[in-house]
Amino acid sequence: MSEERNDPETGAGEPRRARAARAVCGALAGLIAGFCALAVAELVAALVRPEAGPVAAVGGAVIDRTPPAVKDFAVRNFGTDDKLVLELGILALLALFAVTLGLSAPRHRRAGAAGVLVFGVIGAVCAVGRPGGGALDALPSLVGAVVAAGVLYVLAGRLVPAAAPLAGRRTAGAFDRRGFVLAAGAVAAVSAGAGLLGRRLTSVVQAGAARSRRDLRLPAPDSPAPAVPPGTDLELRGLSPFVTPNQDFYRIDTALVVPRVDAGTWRLRIHGEGVRTPLELGLRDLLRRETVERDITLTCVSNEVGGPYVGNARWLGVRLADLLREAGVRPPSEGGPADQLVARSVDGMTIGTPVEDVMDGRDALLAFGMNGEPLPFAHGFPVRMVVPGLYGYVSACKWLQDIELTTFDAYDPYWVRRSWSRRAPVKTQARIDTPRPFASPKAGTVPVAGVAWAQHRGIVRVEVRVDGGPWQPARLAAQDSRDTWRQWVWEWPATPGGHTLEVRATDGTGAVQTGRRVGTLPDGATGRHTVVVNVS
User: Reduced to 3 states, what is the DSSP secondary structure of residue 182?
Assistant: First the structure.
């Protein structure tokens, strides 16, 4: 009869139940070590900058390297929750990695600890490589990984079965369960405390920015927005309101951590080619200038036909063209050498805008107010760009800190390097808001309503057709300005059965919205919005 060989290091010869318990504890040890790494990293990031945390750093690197088609897929399917999905995905992969290391650590303690360090190095490299990153940004990931490696090494040691003498041989005994539970509980508690302390420190550091926004008093506009004409908002159920509330305004950007900039220390620099007098301005300098209030609709280039990434707000700021002329800038049409304005955000984002467009007389603003209050942090506080008629990726830089005059030939901004067009005027679009897709309205008169936009050209006609039939003119709401969207409604004599509703708009130049379906890449989607309903 052969004897079973026993190994106190690997646990060979243990009863099956004991081995299973050890495996579960190993997986738990890995998860606790991963939690410890994130908690310690968050604490250190509070002392460096929140964007340097490993999840934000790795997530930012993933966003930077994501192909445009994948980015569009994420926006289309997850909308403004795309960043949350990315963060959850990173945490899930981290948990899987941690469990794998935890399962192998009792047999290979040094290798397990080394694996944690590898993850820390990856986070550090991503943090340093982010726009605006520096050597200090590596600290959160590295310190978190070193502490977590030690934690995993110690916890794994608690899972090695004690050697028990039997007939002159060393055999695998039971591992120290009580010792493991006590050690794991202590590490988890300390890690939670470190994470909470990190969040507290971050909130303290960011308190100045929150206070500066809370204390900011917006001036009365020197050039108020024209009164909104009666009948601009049709106030129909299911129809988007004419003014989009701040909390409902779409947000599409690459910032996993929303920058919180103190208005008191914020500075804007204007410099570059063709600038005779470089400017450096604080927020108070802008507030003392002539302020302009305008209603302007913004649209994201990632907006699919019929999509939600368009909104209308009342913006308060100063004319960008006035600042550029003060700096001595001339547009290309007047012989200026620079044809591109590169705006830089505090988080490193770069957005290129045609100089001619911001100086052609349109209300291109450096905005600090939105719908009667200071810009929300998520929408660019303290100052952002707003340029009517251009998609956001070539005009709407948030958290603005630098404007450089250059040329399109000399520099490709962030999105252009990722296959998007250098120039991107907003395309004429119309959207059906009500009835919703697959709705079941009752037969009879059914209001079909929505919004249409062609910023800086305006909307002059909207038409609807049913099941490919003749186009029927919709009733347009009053127009506020050519820089805002326009509501419309058509009273449909609906008959029972399934039907397809289709809409098209005509802009102020007489151009009719095309029916040719094209995706968002490289300069915005085209096609007509359709909605299928079943009339009962």
Answer: helix
- What's the DSSP call for residue 244? P
Q: Which of 199, 197, 119 is nearest to 152 (CA)?
A: 119
Q: What distance in Å separates the CA atoms of residue 187 and residue 157, rounded to the nearest whole number?
A: 14
b/e 17-41 (16+ beta carbons within 10 angstroms → b)? ebbebbeebbbbbbbbbbbbbbbbb
For 87, 187, 444, 492, the CA distances from 191, given in Å and listed in that order, are 20, 6, 63, 62
Q: What percent of the chain has pLDDT over 70?
A: 95
Residue 345: strand, helix, or coil = strand
- CA-to-CA distance for 435 and 480, rounded, in angstroms? 25
Q: How far is CA 342 from CA 254, 300, 339, in A?
A: 17, 18, 10
- Taking only the tens place, the pLDDT of each residue in 344-354 is 999 999 999 99
* 348-351 contacts at long range (C-beta below 8 A, 24 or more positions apart): 348/130, 348/131, 348/132, 348/133, 349/131, 349/253, 349/254, 349/255, 349/397, 349/398, 349/399, 349/414, 350/131, 350/413, 350/414, 351/385, 351/393, 351/394, 351/395, 351/396, 351/397, 351/413, 351/414, 351/415
Cβ-contact 216, 374 below 8 angstroms: yes
CA distances in angstroms from 258 to 75, 345, 366, listed in the order given: 18, 12, 19
Closest CA to 413 of 252, 254, 251: 254
Residue that the structure tokens 């790795």 belong to: 58
Half-sphere exposure of residue 101, counting CA atoms within 13 Å on the CB side?
29
Mean pLDDT of the chain: 93
Residues 262-290 have pLDDT tens digits of 999 999 999 999 999 999 999 999 999 99
Cα distance between residue 478 and residue 486, in whole Å: 7
- For the beta carbon of residue 424, count every other beta carbon within 10 angstroms: 23
CA dist., res. 17 & res. 14, Å (int): 8
Cα distance between residue 36 and residue 191, in whole Å: 5
Whether the pLDDT of residue 171 is over 70: the answer is no
Query: Which candidate, 255, 253, 260, 349, places its Cα nearest to that of 46?
Result: 260
For residue 167, the model assigns a pLDDT of 46
Q: What is the DSSP string of 278-328?
A: -EEEEHHHHHTS--EEEEEEEE-TT--TT-S-EEEEEEEEEEHHHHHHHTT
For 448, the 3-state DSSP assignment is strand
Specify which residues 306 forms β-bridges with.
none
Tokens of 19: 């081995």
Contact criterion met (CB below 8 Å) for 239 and 309: no
Q: Which two tokens stand for residue 44?
A: 């250190």
Of 48-52, 128-132, 141-145, highest mean pLDDT: 141-145
Q: Which residues of 438-476 are buried (b: 16+ CB within 10 A; e: fewer)?
A: eeebeeeebbbbbbbbbbbbbbbbbbbbbeeeeeeebeb
What values do phi and psi take at 484, rounded to 5? Answer: -120, 160
